[in-house]
Design a protein that fits this description.
With 160 residues, the chain is an all-alpha fold. It has helices at residues 4-26, 28-62, 68-85, 89-98, 101-112. The relative contact order is 0.10.
Length: 160
Amino acid sequence: MPLLPLVLIALPLLEIAGFALVGSLVGVLPTVALVVATTALGAVLLRIQGLGALTRIRATMEAGGAPGRDVVHGVMIALAGVLLVIPGFLTDALGLVLFLPPVRELVWRFLKSRIVVVDTARGEGRGFRREGPRTIDLDADDFARKDGPPPSRPTIDDDR
């Protein structure tokens, strides 16, 4: 945490220096076009890879596994998208690197020994899958409401 203020001061200065350097090499309009293009690219990559990460998380959970790896990859994809949307060439480079699956896998290998994924939804080793039928069918004799009639609910067509 002691480095955070330094990073918050240094990052904008480095980004301004990057804008000045690229602007002096290619001109103002191409520099602005590059910034707009990387923002659009970040949005597209975030949508494609983010939806893929959500699909993998769901598949892992449905198979009864802990989605720790997929969640960390999803967080890195979201961070990469945010970095690409922030204007600047340094953050864009970092964001593009984080979109690469081998880089995310290296980060995951580094992090997995340092984080603990708690799997509270796994009851007695059954995983996330439900066993048996999903509907419980009760007869009138099996169920009785003891607290009175259910409260009335407002409707959309209510003329009050």
